[in-house]
Amino acid sequence: MTRALLLDLYGTLVEPDWAALTAGRDAIADRVGVPRAEAQSAWTSTHEARMRGQHGSLEGDLAAVLAKAGIGSEVTDDLLAELAAFEQANWRRGVRLYPDVVPALGRLRRAGARLAIVTNASAEAAGVVPALGLDGLVDVVLASCDARTVKPDLLLLALSELGIPRAEAVLVDDEPAQVVAATAMGMRAILIRRGAADISAAGDAATAVVRDMSEVEVHVPALTGPRG
Hints:
This protein is of the alpha/beta class. It contains 11 helices and 8 strands.
């Protein structure tokens, strides 16, 4: 019996335009007078802490990035608020839903599945969920920056919120390592490989492989259980 699907975000439900996102961050570097290469290095070196929400907010993340780039003492609250608004807008513009997602989520919910978005994401990356209206299409949204832990532990938090045991849940993710971790935890898992010409050799015998969300339902035909 499958009662819940845990859904990864990036590469599964949404597609980032990395060129546009990087250009936006270059604009932030230009705004504060930091060489772009140094700013990109600061974004990279703070990634793990930002993904775990260790700075408490997007403004806190930006302060950490700028401090790493060597200008922390010169940054005001007003400037952080300005940069945070810019970065949020940058991600809203730079991330789009895959066209198969909304119809597939609707069909899964009508079939009785409980749905959770479970994502390793920093504040700006997680912010696209409400911006794209995805929070209204699922039962639970868990981002690592809010929960302050990452997958696979984040999967257990999602199951707890849904009230669903591991054996009745399926993870859909584009990262093979997450699929392996989920199956080791007693869940079923589906590996999504968007754009793959051939999926026949992907994954292993215990893992279903799909090209997009429209194919997921084929691998969870026993959807059942009350909504609530």
